[in-house]
């Protein structure tokens, strides 16, 4: 079974009996407020906005958005991430959402060992991508957090992306471990790691997925690339998930797709005790809604 796409995720969110409480860090952003208003009107969420009350209300007034049903927690900007995390830790919210806040400030609160959202697993970003032209859906990790993940960290990222795939309906997700080449080369350490993890998968480790690597992006994405390069395998041209060797490769690839392809996408942090709705401050209202729908689906997993 293939991954659910955003149409299915929206339908699932629309069918919820009760809204999910979401604590948003920094609400004085037009796309954040528009997304929360739309999600609230659809019955998805009960919004909590943590940050400057004056700035949030001023932005809502400029947009002519009603903040009815919103709860605003007024705090100073330097502690708003910690205050929003506390809403989740203390059970008043089930989701954390990145609003108008810098990524380092948010991550310091999420990563804090005493009062953050750590679970013992590496925290990573997982992006669900839909390429409309090709009717393709796949997950990508990690374009947002781990700069140069060790083998142990890559295994944690792998486990997280497989769990997301299961929540989205892929019973045995096909995972591509990406590199610049499908050939194992000692000068490219990521190819050695990919080959090792593929072998461990074949030996029965990670039994809830199919792993192939190293694979270049074209081989993971397009079946005709496999035909032309004479590379076979269950994952070639059919990857449900792509795990990148480092942040540079993942971030550049994901943003290139986002800005040049006819696509829909949304992102979430995993390895946290609760899903964190996590994308760029430059994203649109539609992308924030996508990310909310994706994160809400993981609450059921």
**Derived structural class:** alpha/beta
Radius of gyration: 19 Å
Task: Name the poorly predicted regions.
Answer: none
Main sheet? 11 strands, mixed
Overall body shape: globular
Q: Would you list the SSEs in sequence order as H and E?
A: HEHEHEHEHEEHEHEHHEHEEH
Overall structural domain count: 2
Report the end-to-end length measured between terminal Cα atoms: 16 Å
Average pLDDT reading: 95
Q: What is the CATH level 1 assignment of the largest domain?
A: Alpha Beta
CATH topology of the largest domain: Rossmann fold
CATH architecture of the largest domain: 3-Layer(aba) Sandwich
Task: Explain what this protein looks like in three dimensions.
With 301 residues, the protein is an alpha/beta fold. It folds into 2 domains: 1-118 and 272-301, Rossmann fold; 120-264, 3-Layer(aba) Sandwich (Isopropylmalate Dehydrogenase). It contains 11 helices and 11 strands. An 11-stranded mixed β-sheet has the order 3-2-1-4-11-10-5-6-9-7-8, with helices on both faces. 49% of the residues are buried.
Blueprint of the fold:
Elements: H1 6-14, E1 20-25, H2 30-41, E2 45-51, H3 53-63, E3 71-74, H4 80-89, E4 95-98, H5 103-111, E5 124-131, E6 136-141, H6 151-167, E7 174-178, H7 189-202, E8 210-215, H8 217-221, H9 223-229, E9 241-243, H10 247-260, E10 263-270, E11 276-277, H11 285-298
Parallel strand pairs: 1-2, 1-4, 2-3, 4-11, 6-9, 7-8, 7-9
Antiparallel strand pairs: 5-6, 5-10, 10-11
Helix pairs in contact: 1-11, 2-11
């Amino acid at each position: 079974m293939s991954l659910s796409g955003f149409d299915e995720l929206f339908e699932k969110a629309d069918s919820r009996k009760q809204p999910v409480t979401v604590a948003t860090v920094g609400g004085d952003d037009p796309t954040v407020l528009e997304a929360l208003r739309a999600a609230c009107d659809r019955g998805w969420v009960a919004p909590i906005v943590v940050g400057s009350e004056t700035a949030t209300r001023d932005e809502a007034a400029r947009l002519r958005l009603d903040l009815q049903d919103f709860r605003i927690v007024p705090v100073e900007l330097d502690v708003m991430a910690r205050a929003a995390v506390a809403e989740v830790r203390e059970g008043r919210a089930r989701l954390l959402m990145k609003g108008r806040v810098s990524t380092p400030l948010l991550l310091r609160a999420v990563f804090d060992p005493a009062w953050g959202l750590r679970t013992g697993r590496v925290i990573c970003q997982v992006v669900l991508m839909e390429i409309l032209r090709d009717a393709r859906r796949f997950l990508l990790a990690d374009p947002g957090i781990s700069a140069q993940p060790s083998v142990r960290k890559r295994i944690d990222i792998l486990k997280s992306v497989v769990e997301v795939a299961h929540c989205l309906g892929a019973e045995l997700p096909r995972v591509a471990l990406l590199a610049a080449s499908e050939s194992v080369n000692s000068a490219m350490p990521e190819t050695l790691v990919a080959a090792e993890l593929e072998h461990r998968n074949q030996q029965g480790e990670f039994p809830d997925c199919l792993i192939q690597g190293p694979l270049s992006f074209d081989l993971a994405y397009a079946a005709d690339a496999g035909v032309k390069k004479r590379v076979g395998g269950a994952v070639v041209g059919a990857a449900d998930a792509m795990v990148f060797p480092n942040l540079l490769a993942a971030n550049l690839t994901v943003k290139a797709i986002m800005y040049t392809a006819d696509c829909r996408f949304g992102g979430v942090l995993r390895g946290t005790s609760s899903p964190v709705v996590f994308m760029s401050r430059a994203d649109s209202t539609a992308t924030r809604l996508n990310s909310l729908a994706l994160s809400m689906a993981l609450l059921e997993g």
